[in-house]
Amino acid sequence: MAAPVTVDDPRDPRLADYTDLTDVELRRRREPAEGLFIAEGEKVIRRAADAGYAMRSMLLSAKWLDAMGDLIDASPAPVYVVDPDLAEQVTGYHVHRGALASMARKPLPTAGQVLGAARRVAVLESVNDHTNIGAIFRSAAALGMDAVLLSPDCADPLYRRSVKVSMGAVFSVPYARLDTWPQGLAALGEAGFTLLALTPDERARSLDETAPHRMDRAALMLGAEGSGLTRRALDTADAWVRIPMAHGVDSLNVGAAAAVAFYAVTTGRPEA
């Protein structure tokens, strides 16, 4: 355990992991390259630690020293204590939760590795909104999906906003990023999955009719907000499925659609 250190200079190089957290483009490039991500809030930090992510450092307001004492004692990572104004100067926003941690990323598994023991998989194409990614991972964890596959251009599940919205669920659902798209989807067929494309197209069968919960291995593919799945992705699917709509509504937000569809895919799933 390292003794907490009070820092009063926002330019202190020891705080470099936490600078400019609101610059999405900068952080999206920098964090994977440097092998780090930022966890915000006590609950999320604890979930990251419980999932086996190593801590690089912590940035805390003084009030959190006692509450986070067990984590501080258990980790050799340095702990930097700052006042709220200085934290805002460093990060670019008011850190109202008062607790941040820089965590080390783990190497991502391959698609084959996450599919090996999975029976219910979510596949995301071009979902590049971090809030939607976080919401989808939270629903995937809550509703019993086993894994998530991401197209190369999907947003980073470990970006701070994604982690925060998911309430740390990104740490509990295995995921892999496909190297090629849609060619990489062939891994699903090779592993025995039926690939279902979620689309509002009137030619799609309803989820009830398709009965994905009775399938031995089912993969549900969702597209980006607004545009939905591309034609290339739709053409790779074994079947098109839709959520029936009422009152003239044509579709749901992708986060809401994912939750509804995950429930349909996992309810009454075959026992392993």
Features:
alpha/beta; 12 strands; seven-stranded parallel sheet; Alpha/beta knot; 60s Ribosomal Protein L30, Chain: A; 272 residues; elongated; 2 domains
Termini distance? 42 Å
**How confident is the prediction overall: mean pLDDT?**
94
- Uncertain segments are none
Order of helical and strand elements? EHEHEHHEHEHEHEHEHEEHEHEH
CATH level-4 homologous superfamily of the largest domain: SPOUT methyltransferase, trefoil knot domain
Strand content: 15-25%
Quickly name the level 1 CATH class of the largest domain: Alpha Beta
Rg of Cα set: 20 Å
Strand order of the largest sheet: 8-7-6-11-9-12-10
The coarse overall form would be elongated
Total number of distinct structural domains: 2
* Helix residue percentage: 25-40%
- Biggest beta sheet summary: 7 strands, parallel
Oligomeric state, counting identical vs distinct chains: single chain
What is the count of DSSP helices, taking H or I runs of 4+ residues? 12
Structure report:
The chain has 272 residues and is of the alpha/beta class. The protein has 2 domains: 5-104, Ribosomal protein L30/S12 (60s Ribosomal Protein L30, Chain: A, 2-Layer Sandwich), CATH 3.30.1330.30; 111-266, Alpha/beta knot (3-Layer(aba) Sandwich). The chain has helices spanning 24-34, 42-50, 64-67, 69-74, 84-91, 111-115, 130-142, 160-166, 186-190, 207-210, 231-236, 254-266; strands at residues 5-6, 36-40, 55-60, 79-81, 99-104, 120-124, 147-150, 175-177, 194-198, 205-206, 218-222, 239-242. A 7-stranded parallel beta sheet has the order 8-7-6-11-9-12-10. The chain is elongated. The N and C termini lie far apart (42 Å). The mean pLDDT is 94.
